[in-house]
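This entry is set out below.
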Amino acid sequence: MNIEILCANSSQVKDRVERANRTLQDQLIKELRLAGVSSIEDGNVFLPGFLERYNAKFAKAPARSDTLHRALNIAPNRLSEVFCLRDKRHVTKDLMLKYDRKRIKLAVNDLTRDLARTYVDVYELADGRIQVRAKGVTLPNTIMNPKRRITHTAITENKHLSAVLAHIKAEQDKALHQNRRSNLSVPRTATSRMAVHPADRPSWSCITRLNAQRRHRPGPKADVG
């Protein structure tokens, strides 16, 4: 559309822009306060008179009164193709492509059979429609929405946040109560059994010596009547 961007690189242009912003941000607020405006409705009634006084004081007449806008040189129905998002996507061997977390399946026909492992153009129009094109030709397709899954990035609405926090606290209290009960119900046999360190265990030679002493120990003498 031959639209060029003119940047305000000079200090004079920047000063004019900032001066206008300062007037609208500072003087307008003060005049609203002096006029006793305290609501949006009263402000909308006050603005036409303020703009008329502002333009009468700061406006400059243009050197030429005729319009310098160029005539539209494209058909109006093509504006949707100009003001849209356009990107390239790779087509897999089974004629699938991904765009904006959506899977798009191209219909199998004479136009799409040779598009496997190539790139196509994806147009996202202002009304939300998505079109897939190859060399300017719109390709028939089907948008396949995968099953929605709740992830850790899901955002809970504020009105439901209190209920969610209450449920989480109840589950935590329940788990804590169960842990306390399990700790109190430990059997005594488990606590009475104590592990013996290998260094404290008697050696095999010591056990053999004790058994020999027991065998040679004299038995009790019988009483003779």
Notes: The two ends are 139 Å apart (CA to CA). The first strand starts at residue 85 and ends at 90. The chain is about 40% helix and 15% strand. Helices lie at 11-34, 40-58, 79-82, 158-184, 188-192, 204-216.
